[in-house]
Amino acid sequence: MENYVSVWPVLVLAFIHCFGTKLRFLAGVPRSIWLSGAGGVSVAYVFLHLFPELGEGQKYVEKFNWAEKSLGHHVYLMALVGLSVFYGLERAVVTVKREQMHKTREKEPETPAGIFWLHIGSFAIYNALIGYILFQREEGPTQALLLFSIAMALYFLINDFSLTEYHQQHYTKFGRWVLVLALVAGWATGFIVELPKTVIVLVMAFVGGGVILNVLKEELPEERESRYWAFVLGAFLYAILLLSL
Questions:
Q1: Which UniProt keywords apply (predicted)?
Q2: Closest of 26, 84, 95 to residue 208, by C-alpha
């Protein structure tokens, strides 16, 4: 850990949260080809790099006696948990905003404080996990850290525009700073706490499931007029890069 290589990815990801939404050309409808392409890159990374790592990490999970039968060959169960958690959050936010629209007749009603903090708090925990993974990846090849950082940087950009759309000025004034602090706190925790390999594998699985859900929920709604070709191109090009290394 002498070189603290991961400090640079952490700073880049924090910078994206601070200033990413100022890239106004990425906002609006139809969906920016750059955001669709970024989504393709993030999903390609999860399927072609992160999930194969989880397969290799299954041996750590199986060291738990209680997990040998219930979780044998199913480390991906945690990925399903991650996907399900963020799907639930998405449904909660959408449902509440729809109810607010009916009550206030406003096109873009303000998100209730409770839902806002639940949403931001969940993403803060998620960011902390990603920060810890960045620190942990210093132990491996620099290439693995770089590939993970690129995928997460593009994924953070997608999330920033999504959260800004949901929460508007509440996100730009408060939410993004909470996410920055959570990211740095998660990374800094690596200096104090060394989690078992089993826990790290499960954390990565949870993150992978969250990435898939959060990317696809931004691409699928018809009203966004997403650029399918840009998504596929981003996924294809990053897949070529991953498979060539």
A1: Membrane, Transmembrane, Transmembrane helix
A2: 84
Kindly report the pTM of this predicted structure: 0.89
H-assigned helices in the chain? 7-19, 33-45, 51-61, 67-70, 77-104, 113-136, 142-167, 169-170, 176-189, 197-219, 228-244
Domain layout of the chain by residue ranges = 7-18+32-244
Gap between the terminal Cα atoms of the chain: 24
User: Hey, what are 133's tokens?
Assistant: 């993974």
- The conformation of residue 98, written as its DSSP 8-state character, comes to H
Cα–Cα distance for residue pair 85/82, rounded to 1 Å: 5
**Residue 174: count of CB within 10 angstroms of its CB:** 14
Peptide bond preceding 52 in cis form (omega within 30 of 0): no
- The CA distance from 166 to 211, in Å, is 18
Residue 87's CB: how many other CB atoms inside 10 A?
A: 16
Q: For residues 196 and 199, what is the distance between their CA atoms, to the nearest angstrom?
A: 5
- At 199, the amino acid letter reads V
